[in-house]
Design the sequence.
């Protein structure tokens, strides 16, 4: 009798264990996202959200990630750092996600980074400030090219044009402050004269005063650093002032939204940009071309809107996490973090990523091409 009872217990244990294993295997892989879907930075967050939801659908249609359904949980921080903090706390403490993507803007990313050290959950930001990854934070990565990469690309182009003196006009938010620091460092280091250093506020609607000062000083070129709508105001104000000095922008305006906001004043403006907005101009053998054209076509078909580099930052963030899960065959946050640092030569929309323990951005200036806005469109010039 004891033997029969023991056998039954073993069988029941095996059945229960099998059922439990199947239940655990069926648990979704939860990835969180904090994005500026609405508010002033919605031109960043909306394509990022759309891209993540499109990828979630595509990945699940192919069987998920390592046999698990992908569940993307998106919170809108409304372009507000305080709401980004609340969203990050909810994702890490309540939703218990395996990783978090975003935020869309640098200030919000800098405002929430500490929660990921505390929770030991990896954060893959879609914002570009160098302060996000320098110095390296064990739990924080990002996907956009860094400010430093953009500044180097601009200065290389300016040097080829014989530019000697530069004026800078930067926005006073986290992105602008980070870019300004790099500009102040590299402009003299690269042999240029910093002729003017002007600043504007994120909500300013007229930069005539700053541009008038710059005009009087007569620099060879101007670099404007910010995200919409400020740079579009700068472009329009320059045209109103009859200021024809060559104008460079940062990669923070690398989307059709900037051209829409600036109108005819956008023509002739130069900036470093990822290859997504000029994918059709790439040689057929370029490793990013097919991926970029496919992403653009899929996004256009689903959302009836043009793709943007900012949506690409989210594409990269999610697919890097997927790659890390597949490499380690584990969705534990600490394993995702460890395997992100092992990713090498991963071709994505923004560039080819190689993360290391000392480099949580994974890109260099080769992830950029220099483009000019020509007749309302984008054209590669370098």
Sequence:
């Amino acid at each position: 009798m004891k033997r029969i009872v023991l056998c039954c217990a073993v069988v029941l244990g095996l059945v229960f264990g099998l059922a439990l294993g199947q239940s655990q295997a069926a648990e979704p892989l939860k990835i969180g996202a904090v994005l500026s879907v609405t508010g002033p930075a919605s031109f960043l967050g909306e394509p990022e959200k759309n891209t993540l939801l499109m990828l979630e659908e595509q990945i699940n249609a192919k069987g998920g990630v390592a046999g698990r359904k992908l569940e993307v949980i998106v919170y809108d921080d409304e372009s507000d750092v305080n709401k980004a903090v609340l969203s990050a706390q909810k994702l890490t403490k309540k939703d218990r996600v395996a990783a978090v993507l975003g935020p869309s803007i640098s200030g919000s990313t800098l405002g929430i980074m500490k929660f990921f050290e505390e929770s030991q959950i990896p954060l893959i930001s879609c914002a570009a400030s160098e302060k996000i990854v320098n110095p390296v934070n064990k739990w924080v990565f990002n996907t956009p090219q860094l400010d430093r990469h953009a500044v180097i690309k601009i200065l290389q182009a300016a040097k080829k044009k014989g530019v000697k003196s530069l004026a800078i006009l930067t926005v006073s938010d986290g992105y602008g402050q980070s870019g300004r620091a790099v500009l102040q460092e590299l402009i003299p280091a690269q042999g240029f004269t910093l002729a003017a250093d002007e600043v504007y506020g994120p909500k300013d609607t007229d930069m005539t005063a700053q541009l008038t000062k710059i005009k009087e000083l007569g620099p060879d070129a101007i670099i404007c650093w910010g995200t919409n709508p400020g740079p579009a105001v700068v472009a329009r104000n320059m045209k109103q002032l009859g200021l024809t000095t060559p104008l460079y922008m940062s990669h923070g305006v690398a989307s059709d939204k900037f051209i829409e906001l600036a109108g005819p004043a956008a023509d002739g403006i130069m900036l470093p940009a990822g290859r997504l907005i000029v994918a059709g101009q790439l040689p057929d053998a370029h490793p990013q071309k097919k991926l970029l054209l496919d992403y653009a076509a899929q996004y256009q078909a689903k959302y009836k809107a043009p793709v943007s580099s900012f949506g690409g930052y989210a594409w990269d963030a999610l697919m890097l996490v997927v790659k890390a899960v597949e490499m380690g065959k584990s969705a534990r946050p600490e394993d995702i973090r460890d395997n992100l640092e092992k990713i090498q030569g991963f071709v994505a929309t923004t560039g080819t990523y190689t993360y290391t323990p000392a480099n949580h951005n994974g890109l260099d200036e080769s992830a950029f091409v220099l483009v000019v806005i020509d007749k309302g469109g984008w054209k590669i010039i370098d």
Observations:
- The chain has twelve helices and 14 strands.
- The domain at 148-273 is CATH 3.40.50.2300 (Rossmann fold).
